[in-house]
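DM from R.C. (forwarded with permission)

"hey, sorry to bug you on a friday — could you get me a structure for this? deadline for the figure draft is monday and I only need the backbone to look sensible"
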Amino acid sequence: MCQAVSAAVLNSPKGSITFVDVATSDRAKVLQEKTVDILSLNTTWTSSREIKWGNFTWIIPVVPFGDEQWLNIVKIVLFGLINAEKLKITKANAIRAVGNYGEIYEQYLGPNGVNIPRGPNKLYRNGGQMYAPPILNSKF
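My reply, with the result:
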């Protein structure tokens, strides 16, 4: 996801990305202190986290509270990746920098990565929970 945002914003999937290991206990701290731009891992939404960490949406990677423009950029990139998978737009035919949501999942989390079954991360029409509104008609 971070490389996809970098490709969209900086026109380079490697851009100025620095990956930082964040302990589970430090996730709130790095968001509140804005030490990271995107927290992209398995952070689940709870109402108590929303109150403590600032408002965020569970379906996208978590970003620091208070920067609506950055939140919208990250949402649009994620929605684009999900819609690309739905429309069968792939790394081979259009999204050369990173691929669509499914390709990214397979590379890092699926059989080519740490081998976590896709389960709820499948598209909604394939029995999962991943859905993105059509970008052309979305208002953020």
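R.C.: lifesaver. The helical segments are 2-10, 27-32, 47-53, 68-86, 101-108.
me: no worries. The CA atoms of residues 106 and 112 lie 6 Å apart.
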